[in-house]
């Protein structure tokens, strides 16, 4: 490990999901307290690997996201712990700060009747901003001759127990694209690896794509009681060492997307030919770029949609069923938006763009 490693952890702290994960009816129940004991041991191992390694923990709570711990932040007098001969003091101090921060934030939530959506996107965005600040910290001193090899090797570990939020699809994809190419102050580009540890619940479509596109690992934990072994064997090694050791890979990746109109995850979608916006059904006007499509094209796309019930034919959409405001003559459209069947490639003659 020639280069230092920076680890940012996005921690899912949804009280509802952790309560469900701890129920005796679960195949392998795990409580939040047990999970934190495994996590703290993993964090201590990360810090112990190299003196220059850094750490930041971001909590995703209902309706908000917050920085729980940063190894670069100064230690307050109230966080100091009495000396213990059986514990390494830096480890004990870090564990104490993390536990106090999590307890404080969870107690501040109270007991609301309905839980707000988890602030996962905010926590992921803050982790990327923190990494950008860590990798460009020398810009404040005006030193432009820093060797890129001395910059920390950044990565993000997402620990999730909540299902996907379809409404956050665009924000999650933008974060993935930002992690794919992070530019430092001297235009040195490096990829931020995103690892995912799914402890409870159904597999996450968005997080699978995040791990695959950034070269990370996606692990669906089958035995939460052996969580520490998963963390040590899969996520302790930095990206620079993973080419020398074998890490788990994904057998299948779900590349489905969420439509822009209803925020639902779809198997087959219709894509705007101008801005590539995704819709679950043909629309007369694109809500993103305001491109208008002819009625004949909409009818042809509607007829090409698969039947919702096997054996039930889909009736064609009559022209008079569309609103008058969407009745657009092809001659009135700009050439760039006029869709002519003859101009389409042979494999797309039906006018349907599918996303699988």
Automatic annotation (TrEMBL):
Its main location: nucleus. Residues 300-356 are annotated as: Disordered. InterPro entries: TFIIH_Tfb4/GTF2H3 (IPR004600), vWFA_dom_sf (IPR036465). One of its GO terms (molecular function) is zinc ion binding. GO terms for biological process: nucleotide-excision repair; regulation of DNA-templated transcription. It comes from the Eukaryota. GO terms for cellular component: transcription factor TFIIH core complex; transcription factor TFIIH holo complex. Residues 319-356 have a biased composition (Polar residues). Signal peptide: none annotated. Pfam families: Tfb4. The keyword Nucleus applies. Transmembrane segments: none annotated. Belongs to the TFB4 family. Component of the 7-subunit TFIIH core complex composed of XPB/SSL2, XPD/RAD3, SSL1, TFB1, TFB2, TFB4 and TFB5, which is active in NER. The core complex associates with the 3-subunit CTD-kinase module TFIIK composed of CCL1, KIN28 and TFB3 to form the 10-subunit holoenzyme (holo-TFIIH) active in transcription. Component of the general transcription and DNA repair factor IIH (TFIIH) core complex, which is involved in general and transcription-coupled nucleotide excision repair (NER) of damaged DNA and, when complexed to TFIIK, in RNA transcription by RNA polymerase II. In NER, TFIIH acts by opening DNA around the lesion to allow the excision of the damaged oligonucleotide and its replacement by a new DNA fragment. In transcription, TFIIH has an essential role in transcription initiation. This is General transcription and DNA repair factor IIH subunit TFB4. It comes from Phlebiopsis gigantea (strain 11061_1 CR5-6).
């Amino acid at each position: 490990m020639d280069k230092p490693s920076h680890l940012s952890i996005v921690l899912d702290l949804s009280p509802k999901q952790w309560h469900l994960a701890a129920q005796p009816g679960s195949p392998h129940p795990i409580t939040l307290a047990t999970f934190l004991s495994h996590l703290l041991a993993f964090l201590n191992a990360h810090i112990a690997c190299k003196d220059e390694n850094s750490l930041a923990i971001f909590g995703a709570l209902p309706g908000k996201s917050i920085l729980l711990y940063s190894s670069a932040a100064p230690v307050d007098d109230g966080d100091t712990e009495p000396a213990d001969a059986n514990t390494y003091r830096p480890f004990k101090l870090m564990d104490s700060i993390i536990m106090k921060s999590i307890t404080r934030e969870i107690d501040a939530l109270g007991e609301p009747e309905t839980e707000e959506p988890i602030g996962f996107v905010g926590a992921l965005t803050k982790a990327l901003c923190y990494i950008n600040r860590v990798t460009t910290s020398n810009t404040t001193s005006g030193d432009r001759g820093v060797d890129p090899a001395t910059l920390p090797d950044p990565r993000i570990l997402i620990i999730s127990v909540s299902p996907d939020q379809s409404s956050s699809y665009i924000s999650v994809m933008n974060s993935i694209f930002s992690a794919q190419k992070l530019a430092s102050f001297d235009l040195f580009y490096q990829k931020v690896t995103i690892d995912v540890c799914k402890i409870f619940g159904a597999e996450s479509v968005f997080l699978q794509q995040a791990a695959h596109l950034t070269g990370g690992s996606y692990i669906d934990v089958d035995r939460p009681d052996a969580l520490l072994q998963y963390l040590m064997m899969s996520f302790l090694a930095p990206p620079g060492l993973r080419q020398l050791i074998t890490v788990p890979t994904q057998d299948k990746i779900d590349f489905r997307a969420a439509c822009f109109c209803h925020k639902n995850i779809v198997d087959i979608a219709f894509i705007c030919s101008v801005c590539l916006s995704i819709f679950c059904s043909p629309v007369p006007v694109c809500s993103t770029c305001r491109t208008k499509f002819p009625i004949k094209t909409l009818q042809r796309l509607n007829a090409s949609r698969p039947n919702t019930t096997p054996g039930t034919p889909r009736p064609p959409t009559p022209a008079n069923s569309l609103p008058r405001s969407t009745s657009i003559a092809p001659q009135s459209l700009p050439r760039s938006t006029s869709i002519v069947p003859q101009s389409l490639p042979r494999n797309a003659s039906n006018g349907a763009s599918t996303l699988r």
